[in-house]
Amino acid sequence: MKKPLRPLFLLMLCLVLTALPATAFGASSPTTKTPAADLRTTMAKLHGEHAYYTIIAMQKRFDNAPDAAAAMRVVTANSNALTTMVSDVYGQTAAKNFRSGWDEHVALLMNYVDATIAKNSNKRQEAKSALEDNAETMAALLNKLNPKLDRETLEKHLLMHEQLLLQSFNAYVTGKYDTAYTTAHKAYVHTATIGAMMATGIVKQFPNEFKGTTTQTDAAYLRQQMGQGLGEHTILSILVLQKAHDKAPDYANAKAALDKNTAALTATHRNLFGAGAAKTFNEQWNRHIADYQAYLQATLAGNEAGRKAAKADLGDFVATITAFQVGRLPLDKTMTYQANAMHGAHVITAIESYHNTNYSKTYEALRIGYNHMWMTGNVLSEAVVKKMPGEF
Question: Structure pTM?
Fold first, then answer.
């Protein structure tokens, strides 16, 4: 990769302080909208999604939660999407071989959970050893498909991916919840890095398919980072509401993870627009998170007036945050409003369906909401690049 993945606020600091050469696609001005940037964003999104969904599924399986099967289904849905990408690039036979190894990776993680439940240390070690073998096998498979991807580097990253997932799970089991969520964030960022690395290899392997564009531009990097931060916000928002609903012992720790995400997004606004704008953003962003929590508490209390009040305030937030965004960036007001409203609708749907034990709908809303916020990141990042072309 051109540069290591860093927190979004550090990226923005560099973008604001340093004038970088423009990279264009068919034009003299920089843009996030290139075929290579499209692939980088999509692969980072899918790989990051895999990490968080797997961690959630492992938690639910360990707890024997009623939504464990539904949580597992979104892991499978993500695997389906990854397999389709492999098929599109390398064909059905390659996709079949990839899927076999990927499914084994997921199954071994769940075997580790089951061995933990059974307090069987031998089975835990067997699963861990088999995961290491799987990383070696998958690295060899991917390197054979694409020699532009270094096998040893791939294996190292896949091993780290597995280690982070197990570390997060082990911390959850032992009640070290801060570590569980800090490591979950690391796993998300690291796995998205793997996706971006693989996209870079594919673009190098098939340059004509990507019209000579590259994943290695500052605009493409920004696009990935903005989607990544907003996507994580969606996952953590919905998970925090589940934990609050269930009065789970790790609620405060999950909420702290969400607050760290908010702090990173706030720092981005500070570096782009100054301290005053950052303060306004932080107040409004925390307001909409509080609206979700108020809606949940009113739902638990059977308080319809409280539910309506929370939704009304959320609607006001949508109007306010839209005005904030279009006042600073070249964005279409109607489309921006609709995008913000859709985000709220996805989270509300996830709250209601979880309370009503319609878990399939909960996780459908989670996955749609996650993908939607990456699309929002696409739009916002392009607006930033257009607003500040000299920085890219």
Answer: 0.91
